[in-house]
Amino acid sequence: MGVMKVFDGRAAFAGAVISLLAGCGGGGSHVVPTHGAAQSAGRQTASFVVSVPPRTTAAGALRTPRYVSPATQSIAITVDAGTAQQQTANQNIATGAPNCTTPTAISSLTCTVTLALAPGPHTFDFTTYDQPLTSGDATQGNALSQNLGFPFTIQQGTTNQIPITLQGLPAGIAVLSGAEQDVTGNQSTGFSLVGFYQADGVTPYARTFTVVATDADGNYILGPGAPALTVTSSNPGVLSDGVVAASTNPNAFVVTPGTYGGTQLPLQLQVTATPATSAPQNSGGSALTANVPIIVAARNAPRVFVTDATNNVVHVYDETGHAIGGAIAVGASPWGIAYDPHDGLLYVANNGSNSIQTIDPVSDTATTTTTIADTPYAIAFDGKNDQLYVGVSGAGIAVFNEALQPQAASGSWNESAGGLPISPTSLLYDARLDRVYVLDAARLIQGYDPNGNAVVSWPVATGTYAMAQDPATGVIYLADESTNGVDVYDETGASVPLPGAFAGMSAADGLGWDATSGRLYAVNDSVPTLDVFDRLGNAIATAGTFPGMGTFSNGVAIVP
Fold first, then answer.
1. Share of the chain above pLDDT 70, in %
2. For the whole model, what pTM was predicted?
3. Given Cys at both, which of 130, 170, 428, 432 links 213, Cβ 3.0 to 4.6 Å?
């Protein structure tokens, strides 16, 4: 659809005033004398004035008739259609068109159409179009708004203003998810609700969707003259029909979960825009329906899990920094942590007890513990090859399947310069390139294929301890204690400048990426707490404070 322009009766292009000015009878003075039209048989000179305010001007009184689209270039007016008294006036609505003013930056574009009408009752048809008239003054292009058969009685001796509301003609329907609701996807591909429940696992997670009809040129149809909207669920027992959130915003619909039916359950929201079809608001249009796919992608909204080597626990928070339940007891000195979406488990590398421990992130309980031969630090899960990579002190990289059984690799896991990584402090798996990145204590990032063959490497600053990646862009973020900030690279090792400054960081250690919200969670070990940033490095304030973290909190994982 391209760039979509928003039009609202309350905004700058709020609408147009169409005024009918009728002269007095009996040869007296005229309200519109400038046209000099002769009166005969009691007919009156009448002018229709279309006034479209500029975008930068408050609407004020110029708010009717709505809906007048920003794409409007012409209008057709028919009086008493189908009768012997029928009159038609077609007019271009544009700067330089006949009987149109030349607006300034703060004044309205005003166009005048003149008719001669007898006093008494009349009906009026109005239609606006997105193209100028042809050379023969015929209309062309798409109809944008309309009102057919509008009744109005011309009174003698007074200025007649027609209280008409043009009705927007729906050609499409836009459905948009609200911000900060853990919803991914879009109307075309379908929306994914990341969390049937909120992060506490109990409270149903209601979402608000904005639903707007669009005209033939993709402009939003809002305010008076907009079609009536409904949102109906294909399975209201699982996800409710849409309910208007507030009387002040008829375009905001809330859908609320009911009974949990598991993840990936296909749902559908049927959205219908129905224009008015009865006088005095007859659009002459038809109802339009759009079907929007919905799936529940996770039982709970995203949770942030943080390892705490000081207290031998894993903390659980919601995305805004509020603690959920109690901390989960694990082995000695937990360091790295990774989430496996295939089996729905977290894997924790317990550095002080030479073990890998699993956590069920739904019940927040530690389950199995597997002792390994070496001291683990970092850990990453490879969803394409279904294996875990574990950075072990003095032994490079160990590979395990999801059952924590050791796996042989055809490569050596030697770095490009030779030799195993000295002490891998952070690992990440890049699904875009099917690549494993290892941050070595020697301040080197080494990239491998999944078999342990070195493919790329680059040096990094002294004081870097942790990595995270934005899977949508491939950008790699490094926590850098030497600068109390975050360094950013692409997948080849080239530095990536960002407008944000990652302000407020200190003693940067662990990092974690929230793919649902596009946020970076960074351990600020001097407090300790988590600082939150958007993908451009701008700080994001959170309502909670991520309480309880110890000074050696290193691993961060977001589920889902």
1. 88
2. 0.84
3. 170
